[in-house]
Write a structure and sequence with these properties.
Among the domains are: about 180 residues, Beta-Lactamase (2-Layer Sandwich); about 140 residues, Histidine kinase-like ATPase, C-terminal domain (Heat Shock Protein 90, 2-Layer Sandwich), CATH 3.30.565.10. About 60% of the residues lie in helices and about 20% in strands.
Length: about 450
């Protein structure tokens, strides 16, 4: 695993772990707070319900108190009390009920079918003996009893909180109740809100985690891109230095051949010519043959010296060097070759001169070996956007993609592309039967950059 990836993972893993722990802690705290808040709301609601029930029962007691306090126990007095209690109702589901201590229903305004029935054994859907519990609570001095009972407005069973008191002289249990389904609905809504808030908080934390990871990844990508650019720049600089080193060695070798080896051969040639002149007809034929071979060797040395580093390139510039190269190529290849320069020829940095000259050399070598062409054209164009060099032939053409991707072919094309890339230029090849074009472009920015930088080329 690369070091940069390790650094990114070391940043991402603690971030994700920290946010996960924060999410767990926040979720726990929110649920705990919600539970306490729910308990408080439920307790406050139930306290309000209980106070309301006490008020209602106190109202009912005050209604029948004159009759009960009269001391009469006759049926007429009791029926009058039942009539007064039956008239007391509140809301669609608020009413008072009345039982004797044996479990017989004496009054039920919402369910008159129960009146006169003994409900001592009645149980609610949970199995609880409702009437027994209510009567027992009333005999114990009164109080609250939770149970399940049919809700008149909905015609279905709902939780209810009842409050009962006793009228012991008449053996009555008086009570009323409030249904708690609205409380349960409020609590369920509160639970849903809590769940939604927790989910929203988790989404926020997840979003922050994703954003943090994206920022770390973006920074890592930017770092990689920056380092890649720096590495590419270093590679291009290294390639330039290698090319410059090669050109320096070629120039040095060219000078050595021209100034030392060539001069030595010229001296030997003069000596041989002097010896042959002095001997006259007596000169052996081998001496004349040696002189001819020496002249041939001298010409080859001069050609090698020129190919290593043509003097025209350093003295007269790129157009003159290309023209001389074209003349040499036309002479030994017997192809028609034309050189044309368009635009105002400007002085170019030595590195750019060298790269374009070597690319032209490589292109002409490929044409001579593979193209089977009859005509070749070299075009050099100077413009405001930069410099363009084209080498065009009318040969048989080739499959550019196949050659470029072949592991053992296209070395020359790759060398040309790498040479241009080292100076910030671009390289392209277009080929079809009858026309192949090698194009080298050097933008104006690269020309300015090399013109400002000190050149190390010879």
């Amino acid at each position: 695993m690369r070091l940069k990836l390790k650094f990114i993972l070391l940043a991402v893993i603690p971030l994700v772990g920290s946010l996960a722990l924060i999410a767990a802690a926040v979720s726990h705290q929110e649920r705990d707070l919600a539970a306490r808040e729910r308990a408080l709301v439920e307790a406050a609601t139930m306290a309000s319900k209980e106070a309301e029930l006490r008020h209602y029962v106190a109202l009912a007691q005050s209604t029948v108190q004159p009759l009960y306090a009269s001391g009469r126990n006759d049926d007429a007095t009791k029926q009058e009390a039942i009539r007064l209690l039956a008239a007391l109702d509140y809301g669609s589901d608020g009413y008072f009920f009345l039982y004797d201590f044996s479990g017989k229903n004496l009054m039920h305004p919402r369910q008159p079918e129960l009146v006169g029935r003994n409900l001592w054994e009645l149980r609610d859907p949970s199995g609880s003996p409702v009437i027994q519990r209510l009567i027992a609570k009333a005999r114990d001095g009164g109080g609250f009893v939770p149970y399940l009972w049919n809700k008149p407005s909905m015609q279905q069973v709902a939780p209810k909180l009842g409050y009962v008191v006793a009228l012991p002289r008449w053996n009555w249990m008086l009570g009323t109740g409030l249904y708690l389904d609205d409380v349960q609905a409020t609590m369920a809504q509160l639970d849903r809100q809590v769940t939604g808030n927790i989910a929203t908080t988790m989404w926020w934390i997840a979003g922050i985690a994703v954003l943090g990871i994206a920022l770390i990844g973006g920074c890592g990508l930017a770092l990689n891109v920056s380092e890649s650019r720096i590495a590419d720049a270093k590679l291009r600089l290294l390639a330039r230095q290698v090319v410059q080193s090669q050109e320096t060695e070629r120039a040095h070798l060219s000078r050595e051949l021209h100034d030392s080896t060539s001069q030595t051969l010229v001296s030997i040639k003069l000596l041989l010519e002097s010896a042959i002149a002095q001997l006259g007809v007596a000169a052996p034929p081998a001496l004349a043959k040696a002189l001819d071979r020496l002249k041939t060797a001298l010409g080859e040395v001069r050609n090698i010296s020129h190919r290593l580093r043509p003097a025209e390139l350093d003295v007269l510039g790129l157009p003159a060097a290309l023209d001389h190269l074209g003349q040499e190529f036309g002479a030994h290849s017997r192809m028609q070759l034309s050189v044309r320069v368009r635009g105002a020829a400007a002085h170019l940095p030595d590195e750019i001169n060298t790269v374009l000259f070597r690319i032209t050399q490589e292109a002409l070598t490929n044409i001579e070996k593979h193209a089977q062409a009859g005509r070749v054209a070299m075009r050099l164009a100077y413009g405001a956007r930069g410099l363009r060099l084209r080498v065009i032939d009318d040969g048989r053409g080739f499959d550019v993609d196949a050659v470029q991707h072949h592991p053992q072919r296209g070395i020359g094309l790759r060398n040309m592309r790498e040479r241009l890339a080292s100076i910030g230029g671009s390289f392209a090849v277009h080929s079809r039967p009858g026309r192949t074009q090698v194009v080298a472009d050097v933008p104006a920015a690269a020309l300015r950059r090399f013109a400002q930088a000190p050149s190390v080329a010879p």
